[in-house]
Amino acid sequence: MENSQRISAVIAYIPVIGWLYVLFAQRKDEFALFHLRQSIGLVIGLVVSVLAWGVVAWVLSWIPFGDVIGIALFTLVICVWIVAVITLIIGLVNAARGLRNQLPFFGSFAKWIPL
After folding, report:
1. In terms of pTM, does the model score above 0.85?
2. What is the largest CA-CA distance in the chain?
3. Is the model's pLDDT at 1 over the cut of 80?
4. Within a domain: residue 115?
């Protein structure tokens, strides 16, 4: 594994700017594209967690004292974000070491992302 491939894979974990760099400049590098998919899957998982909480909190707000439960459920979103930060660090370490391991929790559906 070349150093440039590992650097491209690490850059793939920078949202938007790193994604565009890998997508356009390193399109032929399968290792960087793998980590790009993992990074996009992580961000999609985070967005889905916040949107799901928003929908559940909105539905609960129609119930008396449901808004308190909805606010309390936000702790789950915070837990997901903490897990995501740990997962991001795992992905960065895997990319820097040249390993092609899926990210825990978020990486399993990332292989289906078309690039």
Report:
1. yes
2. 60
3. no
4. no
Q: Are 56 and 69 in contact (CB under 8 A)?
A: no
Residue 34 burial (CB count, 10 A): 21
The residue range of the domain holding 19 is: 3-110
Distance CA 56, CA 46 (A): 16
Q: How many domains does the chain have?
A: 1
Residues contacting 80, CB < 8 A, separation 6+: 45, 46, 49
Amino acid letter, 46: L
**26 in a domain, yes or no?**
yes
Could you tell me which residues come within 8 angstroms of residue 40 by beta carbon, excluding any fewer than 6 positions away? Answer: 19, 110, 113
pLDDT tens digit sequence for 28-61: 999 999 999 999 999 999 999 999 999 999 999 9
One-letter amino acid for residue 74 of the chain: F
The helix/strand/coil state of 104 is coil
